[in-house]
Amino acid sequence: MRKFIITVSLVGSAVIILGQFGFFEGLMMFLLAGAIPGTNYSIPSHAMYLSILGIISLVIVWFVGASVLNFFYTLSEKTLEKNKTTRKKLPKRRYSQI
């Protein structure tokens, strides 16, 4: 419980500090208008569009890949469990050499 409270306090403090510096406004201006914070430059709209499409496609590929890997992992775990239960349990041959 103590660790949770400390983590929430640190995250809350970071959000307040970043809000005071105008980080979130600068981030939104960069994402919506392509304005680079602290300069007079702005990125063209087609470049912003392509970069956002690239980021979205990477996120989709990431989640689809993770779900496919998770599917194959659970499938392999199920087959291992099935093989363990169907295998005959043979008695141990401890004292066969006596």
Description:
The protein is mostly helical. The protein has one domain. The chain contains 3 helices and no strands. The chain is elongated, with a radius of gyration of 28 Å.
Question: What would you call the quaternary organization?
Answer: single chain
* Strand element count: 0
Structural class: mainly alpha
Kindly state the percentage of residues in helix.
over 70%
Largest sheet: none
Flag low-confidence runs.
none
- Indicate the mean pLDDT: 83
- Tell me the span between the first and last alpha carbons: 59 Å
What are the defining features of this structure?
98 residues; mainly alpha; 3 helices; elongated
How does the SSE layout of this entry go?
Blueprint: H1 2-21, H2 23-33, H3 45-86
Summarize the structure.
Helices cover 74% and strands 0% of the residues. By secondary structure, the protein is mostly helical. The chain has one domain.
